[in-house]
Amino acid sequence: MARERKYKKRKRGYRKHFSKPKKGCKPYKGLVKADEDGFIEGFCGFENPPLPAIRVLSLFDGIGSALVALDKLNLDVEAFYSSEIDEKAIKLLRFHYHDRIKMLGPVQNLTEGKLASLGVINLLCGGSPCAELSLVNPARKGLNDPSSSGHLFFEYHRILQYLTKSAKEKGHQFYWMFENTSSMELGTKQQMSSYLQCSPVVRCASQFVPMKRKRFFWGNFPSQSIEESDRDGINLQYFLKPYREATVHSMPTLTTNSHSQRSGREQCLPVTEEGVPSHLYITEQEQLFGFPSHYTDGPNLSVTDRRKLLGKAWCIPVVVDLLKFLCPLFKTKLQSKADISPT
């Protein structure tokens, strides 16, 4: 004998509940008139709520790699707060961006009161100094020594905790990204991951440009794999002037020291010009990092200064790839122009 089905009694008004527009959507107020096929004349669906412009806090900002990446993604940056203490980097930021960036000084000065005065922050990014964490440095002090620059990681974590709590209370979108060298002790990596409550992803600049620069990135961005890029086969020659010839296919990791450009047992320079060995031009190095040519050509900055600033910067294509998920979540520059254009 077939079993009699029992149907759950629906609550009163359930149809009205499911037919309501989503939260934040404006209801359609036009005339509702269906044709013979059941289509509603003049109805184009509920209006989507406008996307917000992104507000960013960048710690250990350097020469503004985060802002360069966001500009390449065409995101409308409503506010960009920069925490940096290197006077030459600050000078360069002011030279390029004037009032577009608000300088906040050292991270230690960012108290809860100061952070609260910034208002909504949608993206926190930064990479604390890695010189005292890198295996390349035999005299490294590590993460836990208060006199070590590596100890500044805990300042990032403190600010991250405050902004995460603030975003939950205020109910706005909040994302974060933290970067550091992949050449660190396993214990240091595990301690950082424990504080940040996630494991890092590994990204290398060689997936985009002919240069090695392997880094760890922690964050609450969605996990994504980098698709094979046409740039995987690009030779260093692509970034050189026509009268200069590359002696290597790809560069090693470029640091603040010009000696890092040498490769192989014979420590050869990467370029020859009219048969004479040569270092990379600083403009060629800027392009390898993803910056426009002459980006570091600021007031009273020598070539050595510019090379040191670049050696501490992020590789822009890597950061663009990691942050591209923000594009459908926040307003773009094109959408901002459409908002102010006459109808």
From TrEMBL:
The keyword Transferase appears for this protein: yes
Instruction: Show the Pfam families listed in the entry.
Output: DNA_methylase
Q: Which GO terms describe its molecular function?
A: DNA (cytosine-5-)-methyltransferase activity
Entry EC number(s): 2.1.1.37
Transferase among the record's keywords?
yes
Q: For this chain's UniProt record, which GO biological process terms are given?
A: methylation
Keywords linked to the UniProt accession: Methyltransferase, S-adenosyl-L-methionine, Transferase
Q: Name one GO cellular component term.
A: nucleus
Among Gene3D superfamilies, the record links this protein to: Vaccinia Virus protein VP39
What residues make up the catalytic site?
130
- Superkingdom in the source lineage: Eukaryota
Q: Could you tell me which residues belong to the region Disordered? A: 1-21
Q: Which InterPro entries match?
A: C5-Methyltransferase (IPR050390), C5_DNA_meth_AS (IPR018117), C5_MeTfrase (IPR001525), SAM-dependent_MTases_sf (IPR029063)
Q: Which family does it belong to?
A: Belongs to the class I-like SAM-binding methyltransferase superfamily. C5-methyltransferase family.
Q: What protein name applies here?
A: DNA (cytosine-5-)-methyltransferase
Which source organism?
Thrips palmi
Its lineage opens with: Eukaryota, Metazoa, Ecdysozoa, Arthropoda, Hexapoda
